[in-house]
Design brief:
Chains A, B: It comes from Parvibaculum lavamentivorans (strain DS-1 / DSM 13023 / NCIMB 13966). The structure is a homodimer of 364-residue chains. Chain A is α/β, with parallel strands linked by helices and 364 residues long. The first copy, chain A, is built from 11 helices and 15 strands. In chain A, strands 3, 4, 5, 6, 7, 14 and 15 form a 7-stranded mixed beta sheet that branches.
């Protein structure tokens, strides 16, 4: 998968010859965010810059995509680092990557007819040209609005599904703890765990978020990490210990969970967002010894590895969405030009629900 | 298992009434090491003290064991800490615990006839009385000396077997790295991995040990961590990355392994001996993020959990021992009185092979 993405990525970022576009063009130029400067810690104004380029004419096999929505995800920051991660580091000067939903504006590729919806790991652009490699048609489910379908089904939903059910393997009656619980993935993890008969405790960063988790989403308890010590609060809210700990944050919250794990517990490492803005080595969990003492399995995953199973997971997720069993909030920021600042919200907890950028209007 | 051991342990350490022994007594008194002072870091002279107690008369169901050998294992230090570990902390004033092999000197328990061999988690004693709970007969295998059979089959062998084959799950052609490779467990892990067609790299603490690993045991490479940077050396000796990392030490060696793991690799946490002598919180691995980036599974285990499968593992191990496929060294210290100082060798790397104490002579 690493190689697939990297190969695709290289072809996507290849030098674009300054060809003139044909008569059918929908726009003479496109706007793209370029990766300008590798961030030392937080993303700054000059980390990404917005530029306008002419749209080249389509060659045989290519399509022009008009972006409708872009998903902003914590892992975007990982791609900017020069760590050895699950992808080659994003080269400076290339277009910033993100998961996108678009409409085919023009096509010389029969797999993607004009007017159809397409999704994949794309670039931060209002229009872009691709040969279609790495993209798939987006099957809009009946009875779910397009923004909701893309926001939940493109990354967050499959991530919650795989991480909790295939890696965490909760049994009815288990206690499941999830951090960044009001985030896009966390909120789904908690609800799916409830659907499987677990006691669910969420950790989030405000009273409002905590209230939302318990009052709207049915979490058994929610802990505001800004207000109280997470370890103390978990001792109270997980009195029988933790069987599955679903980690999105890392640092002290992970340590608190490790401290209270039951024998044979599963620790799912989905994200370590508290460490992504650091260029210095970050110590691992201080309670690491509990991997022995409590016979734990700590397993990390990257959702891209599971792409071929998305249809199967999403069928389940759509059913739960339609029947009101999965609730969620979308935090939609309008306009490609606001994408960089919007991304920053993920690292301050400033977003309120699944973070997305609306770039183009859906066709009627 | 935790509860079984703890319950057994409590009964073993109950107050012993000062009864006089009957006529059949083989010795009027026994020597025991008592846990005297919880160590802050290293084990000191007053951590354990040797005392003599009268041997009580046997009640119905009890047996008197004359200890022949005691196994010294890194996990002994864990039992002395007041951390939340896999066992209740050893109470001050109780007899020190260890895996022992003994001969039944007297018996009022038909499951353990006089003269038979018995093994289990016992106390650091030359003679001790037990009701037999937690003990099993020791089936001395044909063609293997008693010291070798006890030294390899009581703890180290099953640990290597379970950790490597059931948790590490190596495939032929995989690169397996093992730390404390010249230790009792590590040396077996490497050889079992070779028997399964892997490339094996060991990390050890002297030139002599490294030479033993490559020249005698058939390791593909050995790294002397006192002489060179382990990460640099692993880059050279594991040029295709690491598929299974078997950790006995923790700290920098674990970090070096994590850095070079291949996608989907398994990290077996058998021991973290570099951290056991610390009373302060110890940071976890700095490359912990690789659990995501490389989609790792990090799993810890405690060999006591697998006790019911020992017969099955040991049948395999004995076959390999008899046919010369498993080589090992025993480091036997003579005399119960030297047990405390001998234990210290494990934390300085001063032992040379499986560390044991010879307490009593085998009957002819």
């Amino acid at each position: 998968m690493l190689k697939t993405i990297s190969a695709w990525f290289r072809s996507e970022n290849r030098a674009q010859p300054g060809q003139k576009r044909g008569e059918a063009q929908v726009s003479a130029s496109a706007h793209h965010w370029y990766f300008n400067k590798r961030p030392k810690d937080v993303i700054e104004a000059d980390t990404l810059v917005l530029r306008e380029d002419p749209i080249p004419a389509l060659k045989q096999g290519e399509l022009l995509v008009r972006t409708l929505y872009m998903s902003l995800d914590a892992t975007n920051r990982v791609w900017m680092s020069d760590w050895d991660t699950y992808m080659d580091p994003l080269p400076l000067g290339s277009r910033m990557l993100g998961f996108v939903l678009g409409e085919v504006a023009e096509s010389r590729n029969p797999a993607f007819p004009q007017g159809s919806l397409v999704t994949g790991l794309g670039t931060w652009s209002d229009y872009f040209v691709t040969d279609g490699v790495g993209y798939v048609p987006f099957p809009k489910p009946e009875g779910v609005p397009l923004a909701d379908a893309f926001g939940i089904l493109s990354v967050a939903g499959p991530t919650a599904y795989v991480g909790l059910l295939e890696i965490g393997k909760p049994k009815p009656g288990d206690t499941v703890v999830v951090t960044a619980a009001a985030g896009a993935v966390g909120a789904l993890v908690g609800q799916i765990a409830k659907l499987h008969g677990c006691r669910v405790v969420g950790v989030a960063g405000s009273e409002d978020k905590c209230r939302w988790l318990t009052d709207e989403l049915g979490f058994d308890a929610a802990i505001d990490y800004r207000k109280e010590n997470v370890l103390d609060a978990l001792k109270r809210e997980a009195p029988n210990g933790i069987d599955v700990h679903f980690e999105n944050v890392g640092g002290e919250q992970l340590d608190a969970g490790l401290t209270l794990m039951n024998d044979g517990g599963r620790v799912v490492i989905c994200g370590l967002i508290s460490t992504y803005n650091s260029s210095e080595p970050v110590p691992g969990p201080y309670m690491f010894r509990n991997v022995i003492m409590k016979r734990l399995t700590i397993q990390g995953f990257v959702i891209l590895d599971y792409a071929e199973h998305f249809a199967e997971y999403n069928a389940k997720l759509v059913e739960w969405m339609r029947t009101g069993k999965l609730k969620y909030r979308l935090h939609i920021v309008d306009g490609l030009k606001n994408a960089r600042d919007a991304l920053g919200l993920l690292y301050t907890g400033g977003n309120n629900g699944k973070l997305m950028v609306r770039i183009g209007k859906e066709s009627a």
